[in-house]
Specification:
Keywords: Membrane, Transmembrane, Transmembrane helix. By secondary structure, this protein is mainly alpha-helical. It has 6 helices and no strands. The chain has 3 domains: 1-34; 36-70; 72-143, no CATH class.
């Protein structure tokens, strides 16, 4: 228990943080062993600038607009929109067909299906969210 008082948390917490730091150190060494660390630095700087100057004001303004109307359903739109945006950010070169042939050469799969599948995924997420909202609204409605 002396560790708990000195450290402020239990030994499992300390062990998990040491493991996370070791994993981050390994990833850091792999990035710089690849020969092009400036691409990673440029990507991080671009992500920070894009988030802080574009995305943050955009989603903060949309959130204030939605909450200004006292909408109870804001999370039923927010969650699928966030997941749709995140999946777009991850797969946008394939969704927009911007690949230069390396994807097809390394996987022997076509990238032509990504747009349709992404749209289907987004539609399914919004449909499930809308269905959940309808079920919750029906339960909350007085009989």
């Amino acid at each position: 228990m002396r560790l708990g008082r000195a450290y402020g948390a239990g030994p499992l917490h300390l062990l998990s943080h040491v493991a996370a730091l070791a994993l981050a150190a390994y990833a850091f060494t792999r990035i710089f062993a690849g020969g092009q660390p400036w691409n990673v630095v440029l990507w991080f700087v671009g992500a920070v600038v894009l988030h802080d100057l574009v995305a943050f004001p955009l989603y903060t303004g949309l959130n204030r607009l939605a909450l200004g109307r006292r909408m109870r359903s804001v999370n039923h739109v927010r969650v699928p929109a966030l997941l749709s945006g995140l999946s777009f950010i991850v797969f946008f070169p394939l969704i927009l067909g911007l690949g230069d042939g390396r994807y097809e050469a390394s996987t022997t799969l076509s990238q032509d299906v990504y747009l349709g599948r992404w749209l289907l995924l987004c539609g399914a997420m919004f449909a499930v969210s809308g269905l959940l909202y309808a079920v919750r609204a029906r339960r909350l409605r007085p009989s």
